[in-house]
Specification:
Layout lengths: L8 H22 L1 H7 L9 H25 L5 H25 L4 H20 L3
Helix pairs in contact: 1-2, 1-3, 4-5
Length: 129
C-alpha cells in the first residue's frame, strides 16, 4: 500500500494544496466565525479570541498549502512533506477522538475523524517511498 501511486505524488500535492486552501485555509483566514457556524460550533458573544485563533489556524493551513505546491516541484522535499502531513493528520485524528470522547464538539467534528483517517490512507498511497 505504501507508495502504490508514488509516480503521481506531485499531482496529489497540488490537489491537496488546493483542497487545504479551499476547505480550511481561506475560509478560516477570511471568515472564521462563519466557518465555525457552518460546522455547528456555538459562537461566543465576544468573538475576538475565537476569531484570532481561527485566523491563526487559517494562516497555518494556507502556508501548508503553499508548501504543498513547493514540494510538488521538488522531489527531494516530498518525503519530508508527506511525513509532515501524516503527522498532522494523526494529530487531527487524536484531537477529534478526544473531543468526541469528552463530548465537547459538534457532530460535524466527530464525523471529521473519518476524513482524517481517509486522508491518511490516501496519503500513504501517494507516499514517495
Amino acid at each position: 500500500m505504501l507508495g502504490i501511486w508514488k509516480a503521481s505524488a506531485d499531482i496529489f500535492l497540488i490537489v491537496a494544496g488546493i483542497a487545504m486552501l479551499v476547505a480550511f485555509g481561506l475560509p478560516l483566514l477570511l471568515a472564521p466565525m462563519r466557518w465555525a457556524r457552518m460546522f455547528r460550533w456555538e459562537v461566543p458573544q465576544d468573538q475576538k479570541l475565537a476569531s484570532f485563533l481561527g485566523r491563526s489556524v487559517g494562516i497555518f493551513i494556507s502556508i501548508m498549502a503553499i508548501f504543498a505546491f513547493k514540494a510538488a516541484q521538488n522531489p527531494t522535499a516530498r518525503p519530508f512533506f508527506f511525513d509532515l502531513m501524516l503527522w498532522i493528520f494523526g494529530g487531527m485524528i487524536l484531537l477529534h477522538v478526544y473531543g468526541a470522547i469528552r463530548k465537547v464538539q459538534p457532530i460535524t467534528e466527530t464525523l471529521e475523524i473519518i476524513l482524517w483517517v481517509v486522508l491518511s490512507v490516501v496519503t500513504l498511497g501517494f507516499f514517495p517511498a
